[in-house]
Amino acid sequence: MVSGFALAVALCALAVALWSFTQSARNKLPDAPLLIALAAVEVLLVAQLVVGVVLLAGGERPGSMATYLAYLIGCLVVLPVGAFWALAERSRSSTAVLGIASLAIPVMVLRLNEVWSGASA
Amino acid sequence: MEQARRTATGPGRILVAVYAIFALAATSRAGVQIGTKFHEAPLAYTLSAFAALVYVLATIALARGGLRWWRVALVSCSVELLGVLTIGTLSVIDSSAFPHATVWSVYGEGYLFIPLVLPLVGLYWLRRTSPATPPHPDAPTTPSDCP
Prior knowledge:
heterodimer, A: mainly alpha, B: 147 residues, mainly alpha, 4 helices, 63% helix, 0% strand, elongated
């Protein structure tokens, strides 16, 4: 159930990453649709945080609590900081920066899921 | 000065972004390791913390630019390359000495070998943006590498 949601979040972030890199390759600056897509992924990550906290409150426990919380909260900061860094200098590189930030999300979400399923590190 | 910002302009912004992600990953990992199980492998976790420090320093130095930060970035990237090669080799030769993974174990295998490639790209970029040499024709001297 949780892993289905994690997979959906990971795939959405991956799609946004590919979109960013395509736009960057086409010499495009970060535009509104891309930023909206990024915001949508961030909303999914907030939802993931809520789901994670609810599961913890329900008494379920991950393989390593500290690692789990680090991923749960850590993946929330990546996109806002990435967007801030990207928009400070608008160029085709900023669009690629958004891609890099989005690419980190599936990695973190899938690791988060592994830790939840019992991996300890 | 234009030159003062060069490492953080154009493609350099992508490099800073990748460094920042590794700084976050390495810092979190070291923090969790040291906070929860430092006694299990003090050496490996101290190395983790050291690696994290190097990534944080490299990220800040590349993002800031300027002659002084350029030098800090050069030292950070060099130490990083030395670290990943040393720890990588040691962990391959004697895996029992490094049972607890660091970012640099097996040349960064757990991180798609990006820890091995990143300092090379960093050093290449620092050479391109070197304050000692005239700007490369392709190097971004102004924040507009977009037509």
